[in-house]
Structure formats: C-alpha cells, structure tokens
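Researcher: Checking consistency across runs. Here is Aspartyl aminopeptidase again:
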Amino acid sequence: MAAFKLDRAAVLKSAEGLIDFVNKGPSPYHVVEECKRQLMERNFTELKEKESWEIKPNGLYFVVNNFSTIIAFAVGGQYKPGNGFNAVGAHTDSPCLKVKPRSNRSRCGYLQVGVECYGGGIWHTWFDRDLTVAGRVVVRSSEGLEHKLVHIKKPILCVPNVCIHLARDDHLKFAPNKENHILPVLATSTMQELQKPIDVSSCPAGSVARNHTPHLITLLCKDLSCSPGDVLDFDLHLADTQPATVGGALDEFIHAPRLDNLFNCYTALQGLFDSLPSLAEETNVRMVAMFDNEEVGSQSAQGAGSSLLEFIMRRISNGGSAVAFEESIPKSFLVSADQAHAIHPNYSEKHEYNHTPFLHGGPVLKLNANQRYATTAITASILREIAKKASVPLQEVVVRNDSSCGSTIGPILSAKLGLRTVDIGSPQLSMHSIREMACTTGVLQSILLYTSYFNNFTTLDASIKY
C-alpha cells in the first residue's frame, strides 16, 4: 500500500501517539515507566526475576531489568513449552550527554556541569539548545533504598557557542573538543550570591551531593521532595526541552528527539497490543524486548549482549522436555527493529546508488554482506510475505563499499541464540542529532507491519520448506 493510500486521520493519530510517547521518555527509565503504564492498562502482569513464575496460555506478562530494559510477552492460547517465540527487539537508549559522577565545575564566574558523551551523538547539535536533566535518583528513605524518576521540566542548562567574531575559522568546520567545549552552563556566581542554594556542607563526608553544583542538587531535591543527604546516587541524562511535534507544510514530518529508537519501541508495542485479539489461536509466544545500552555496544547486564533474554526465554519454556528451550529456537524469529537512514536530498552521494530509502516508502530491510546486520535471504523473504499480508511496502538499504556501516542488536542476539533474525527500521533523517526527522506515515506502516508479524508468522513459518 503506497503511503498516500493510508487513511490520513489514522496516520496522524498514530503519529500523535508516538509524539506523546517520545515526550514522556526523556531517559530510558522514563521510557520503561511509560511502557509499564501502557502494559498494565491492558492487564499485563509484572513478573519479578527473583520470584518463581507460573506461565499460562493466554497470559500477558512483562519483566523489567535495571528499570531501563523491559521485555513484554503474550503467551499464545495454544502454547506448549518447546514452541517458539515471535519477537521484536528494540532499544530504549539514545545518544546524549550524561552528568558525570563529580560534575561541579566553575570558571570565569560561570557555574557549569561536567558531562560525558554517551554514544555516537552529533554533538554540535547540542549547542545553543534549551536543556534540562532527566533520569533516576536513588534515595534513602525509611523503607530502604528507592529508585525515583526525575525530570526537571524547564530549561536549566545550555551549551553556548563561541561568537563568530572570536573564532571565525572554527566555524568553517565546527569540531568542538568534547572535554573542553561541551560544558553546559547552569548559573553564574553572581546570582548564586543573591539566591542561595541548598547548603550541602552539612551532608556527611563522601555524600554524593557534595560532588555536584549545589543548584543542581537543589533542583533535584525540590522535584523529589527529599533532602541532599538522602541522595545516594543518580543517573541523569541531558535532554532538549523542546517537545516533539508534527511539522512540514503538509503535516507529514515528525520533528523529535530520540526517534532512534523510541520510534520502534512505540510501534512494536502497539503492534503487540493490536495483535492480542488473535492470541487465543497462537501456538508461540509473542514478545517485544526493549534493551538499554545499544548505543554503546550492548555489553551490560541490561543490554542485548547479556544473557537476560535467554534466561527469560528458558523460564518461559520451563515445564516441557529437558531441551524445550533448544527446541523452541528453530521455531522462533526475531525482528531487530532500529531506525534506518533515509536518502538525504543534500547528501545523496552518501547513499548507495540502487539503495535509497525514501520517507513514506515503508520500513527498510537492512542488509550487509559483512554481517553488521543479521538479515538473510530466508528472513527477508519471511518479512516480505508478512508485509504483503498487511499491504505495507518495504524498501532495502545497503551501505556504500567506501562507507562504514552501523550495527544493531540483531547480529548480537542472532549469534548468541542461533536465532533467525531480520534487521529493519523506518526511514529517518538526522540520526543521532539532538533533534531527528521522520515521516508520519512511517508510524502507522510500522504498527501494521508488526501487527501482521505477530498475527501471521507462526502460520507462515509452518509453510516454509527447508
């Protein structure tokens, strides 16, 4: 189905759903919290890794790890241990600036916040933006240690550019030093004298509050209604305060932060929800796995490079034969969903001549001979048939031989589990910028594709002759 044949009202409704999701997800912790809310709204039950599980056919469940990774699954009504998994994998993190463990900096009368560069961001796009902080804070309470979300909903930080008159040559090729030049300004010492922040000097020696600008601690404590001495640690992400929105003269674009990869977190989850009416006839487990730390290699306890997904799949397979999990793998399939590069009108020479994905052209199959993507002829064929059933067009992308190729969680999980995998993503521009650009039709196309995948994979897989 061509993009222009999609119902405009349905396209905009889906796009607005994504925009709301992105605006509620300034950090992976907020993304997982919003996913939990949507899952519980639909009667999914949270399972704890430390507790025993009783998995039943037609059951709806989810598991959270580190508050930044979430795996949701719906058990088919005809499921038996040893049957397969129809999974979509995505990631909750995006390139950003993160507050350093000791961030208190001051120079030339400015109070600044030391930050680390997380992932491969286009860092010059972070200059001259209205920034804030969001993430999690670990607080000591009467009941023990508590994980609390924080999101300061006003501009409190800025990384200012140097004026052109002082560095004309620098602006010909702007390449800021990540240690010296990306230091956000929080306040001035002049105003600090007039508006005293919370006094952290009374905090015990070694207190985390002593390691940061008092004004930052003041904002956190006000938002959380706690005292500085109760703050044990935190993981704070800088985020743009400008909300995501629909744009373009024809209302066809989405301008937003973190589209890579909240786009696929949202659309995969909606696809799972939309497939639930057919769950009673399903023999497999339908799953959406959203991991943290993809942007830095996935090698963490909550990343796709860990054994987390394997452990969960094994526990679901419990109750069958001794090799029920091993029997499930050849019956399983993973759609590794991560955004794709649309052709850029001003840099068209950067794209391979015959592989130029367009906005509105449908989800993009990612292929790479050197296995940076996990797509094979078989897995691509399966997805083509699934897309055909949903009347969703597909595109393909291959990088130029003289260009480097990014990667996804697809090859990681495919190799780790021996799992058939296809890599796809919706086309977008400005990937890894503080503000990215996608198309409104891509949201609905992706939801329809994932819904078709959950509804049709098991039957289609049974028809394949190996």
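Researcher: Does this match what you'd expect to see?
Model: One thing to look at in this run: Residues 342 and 358 are 5 Å apart (CA to CA).
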